[in-house]
Amino acid sequence: MQPVRRRYSMWDVSFNIFNYAIISLIAFICIFPFVNTIANAFSSSHAIQSGKVFLWPVGIQFDAMKSVFWDDNVIRAMLVTIYVTVVGTAINMVMTILTAYPLSRRDLAGRKYFMNYMIFTMMFGGGLIPSYLLNKELGLLNTLWSIMIPGAVSAFNVIIMKSFFQNMPEELREAAIMDGCGNIRYLLRIVLPLSGAVMATIGLFYAVGHWNSYMGAVIMIDNPDLYTLQVRLRNILLLSQMDTSLEVMQQQGKLQVIEESLKAATAVFATVPILIVYPFLQKYFVKGSFLGSVKG
């Protein structure tokens, strides 16, 4: 039997063309700043000053990237940010799992009240000054813990993971109990191995948040040795604070870098690492968000 081919009317074709045009325009608007930044990071100073750089590098040079890589302060900030991202994400995941799993259990007394308290924190926050005073009283100022501890649990991510756990068949837990599994063993041996998608999704949320953290580091940390990458790049972009050895090299003519090229190079330096990680988690990202959003 021959399949029936759908015949598109002129209105259908026009509507599809209009949709593709709008989607293409929006996609171009979203991706253009990043592509243009990459092009400026690897273009010659003359091409940038002449306004010839648009979507691809003109007069390719690597002086701007060398300026960033040769700055000891930037490298130190990168290492600090990697540490905060890894340790902070690990803390977030442990706390989120330990919060979401009990809330997913229907036999937990007062579960709805605990959930209402968490939802309340999504609507109302203590504010910047109370957060600063709390960190001060706890002795967390000028430590990396002031960035990682206050945001150890996200109510939004707890709700996603709780919904995912809640959708698991109750028969799994009953069979585990019959085999002698306690709550902790059931969580570690059965629940978590089946939750790879949602854990990868929430882990990506947390990791990106730590990598891009800026305001907390500016307010809570005064020690330049503990500046995160975003704070260090902010100083480069706004205050032009580069290593003095680089300034000497520029004066000697060994590096030909203008301010626009340096800004683009620092932005690329801060963005590319997280973009490298994202493709490996992309397949889990959509799946985890979808599964965690279904209410059991």
- Termini Cα gap: 42 Å
Tell me the name of the CATH class of the largest domain: Mainly Alpha
What is the count of distinct domains?
A: 2
CATH superfamily of the largest domain: MetI-like
What portion of the residues fall into strands of 2 or more residues? Answer: under 5%
Structural write-up:
The chain has 296 residues and is mainly alpha-helical. The chain folds into two domains: 1-61, no CATH class; 62-296, MetI-like fold (Orthogonal Bundle). The chain is built from 15 helices and no strands. The longest helix is centred in the last third of the chain and has 34 residues, at 259-292.
Secondary structure blueprint with pairings:
Elements: H1 10-41, H2 45-49, H3 63-69, H4 72-104, H5 111-123, H6 128-137, H7 145-148, H8 155-166, H9 170-178, H10 183-191, H11 196-211, H12 215-220, H13 229-239, H14 244-251, H15 259-292
Q: What's the short version?
A:
The chain has 296 residues and is mostly helical.
Features of this protein?
296 residues; mainly alpha; disordered C terminus
